[in-house]
């Protein structure tokens, strides 16, 4: 079993920190170029390695540990936030008391950012909420795109999904004590594409009984579903978009909604059962990820702050609107425009 000390001995922990770069939409591409003898511009991933990482304080006063581990040959940098005494003694956190692999009372809410990494840098889910500690993971891609590729074509989705699964199951238990049966996931834009297209069908069987919040992005499953009946019968999925979503996503989100609904129906769930587990909303009159109808960053923060209301049996209220509309009968989302 890997421990923090063995990771250090093997050189698998890196001192890297991400730069606060702009959030890019799923069609964005790295425009680094060279010419006229000028040095080639660094990729977003390279820029993300220049500031040392370590321990800091979360907005709720808990502790954030920022570190990198090699997972399946991929450098996965992550932030994990929670009470200091829930970290393992080998983590380097002052006040840590836990043994590696120990089960804890807290669950996790694991966030995958959008293209460019903004939500990783902001870490909107860092505060412990309804007994869930926050985790954010940085995409191991030159452009910081979850699933690699660009747009709706996530060419590294299989490998990235496997790495996230293995990070949660094998690395995070060496860092913090948590309840492995209570691990939720949040996607933002490109992170939602990877979760819906690859992670849910291939790996959600390992996290049954929890849920996935898909913000401003979704794909129909791109790989075969593992244990579809069990996963669909036990997993809460909420699709959240806005009225002025990106044009490509205005097509892919409804396709994803319909695909997951059909998978649940094929698994034997009736309309009421599906509607209780799978919900959808695009009522905010904002652009891509502007759920507060104002701004990308504050919109994503609003959804992080509303996580328990949406995903953990709350009232579903976001800015005074109940977003928990059953997918049954609401598959054909209507949009008023598109973000340019």
Task: Give a brief description.
The chain is α/β, with parallel strands linked by helices and 340 residues long. It has ten helices and twelve strands.
Which labels suit this protein?
signal; alpha/beta; Rossmann fold; 340 residues
Can you put this structure into words, describing what you see?
This protein has helices spanning 4-9, 44-47, 118-122, 157-171, 190-203, 228-234, 247-266, 271-277, 296-305, 307-311, and strands spanning 55-57, 63-71, 74-82, 107-112, 132-138, 183-188, 211-215, 236-240, 278-281, 317-318, 321-322, 325-326. It is an alpha/beta fold and 340 residues long. Strands 1-2-3-5-4-6-7-8-9-12 form a ten-stranded mixed β-sheet, with helices on both faces. The radius of gyration is 19 Å and the shape is globular. The termini are far apart.
Summarize the main sheet: 10 strands, mixed
Strand order of the largest sheet: 1-2-3-5-4-6-7-8-9-12
Q: What would the principal axes of the Cα set say about the shape? A: globular
Which residues form runs of ≥5 with pLDDT under 50?
A: 1-38
The average pLDDT score comes to 89
* CATH top level label: Alpha Beta
Cα-atom radius of gyration = 19 Å
CATH topology: Rossmann fold
Count of the domains: 1
Order of helices and strands: HHEEEEHEHEHEHEHHEHHEEE
* The CATH homology group name: Alpha/Beta hydrolase fold, catalytic domain
């Amino acid at each position: 079993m890997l421990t923090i000390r063995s990771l250090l001995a093997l050189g698998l922990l890196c001192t890297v920190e991400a730069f606060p770069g702009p959030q890019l939409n799923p069609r964005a591409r790295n425009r680094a170029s060279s010419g006229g003898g000028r040095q080639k511009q660094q990729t977003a991933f390279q820029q993300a390695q220049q500031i040392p990482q370590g321990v800091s304080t979360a907005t709720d006063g808990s502790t954030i540990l920022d570190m990198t581990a090699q997972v399946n040959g991929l450098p996965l940098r992550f932030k994990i936030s929670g009470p200091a005494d829930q970290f393992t003694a080998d983590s380097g956190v002052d006040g840590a008391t836990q043994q590696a692999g120990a089960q804890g009372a807290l669950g996790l809410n694991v966030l995958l950012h959008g293209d460019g990494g903004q939500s990783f840098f902001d870490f909107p889910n860092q505060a412990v909420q309804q007994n869930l500690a926050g985790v954010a993971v940085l995409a191991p891609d030159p452009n910081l795109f979850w699933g690699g590729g660009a747009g709706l074509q996530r060419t590294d989705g299989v490998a990235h999904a496997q790495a996230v699964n293995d990070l949660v199951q094998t690395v995070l238990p060496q860092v913090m004590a948590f309840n492995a049966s209570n691990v939720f996931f949040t996607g933002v834009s490109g992170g939602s594409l990877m979760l819906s297209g690859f992670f849910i069908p291939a790996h959600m069987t390992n996290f049954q009984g929890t849920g996935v919040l898909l913000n401003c992005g979704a794909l129909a499953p791109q790989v075969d579903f593992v244990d579809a009946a069990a996963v669909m019968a036990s997993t809460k999925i909420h699709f959240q978009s806005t009225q002025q979503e990106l044009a490509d996503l205005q097509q892919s989100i409804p396709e994803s909604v319909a695909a997951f609904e059909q998978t649940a129906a094929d698994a034997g769930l009736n309309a009421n059962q599906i509607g209780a587990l799978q919900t959808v909303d695009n009522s905010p009159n904002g652009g891509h990820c502007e759920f507060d109808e104002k701004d990308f960053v504050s919109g994503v923060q609003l959804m992080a702050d509303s996580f328990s209301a949406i995903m953990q049996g709350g009232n579903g209220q976001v800015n005074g609107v109940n977003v928990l509309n059953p997918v049954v009968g609401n598959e054909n989302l209507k949009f008023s425009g598109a973000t340019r």
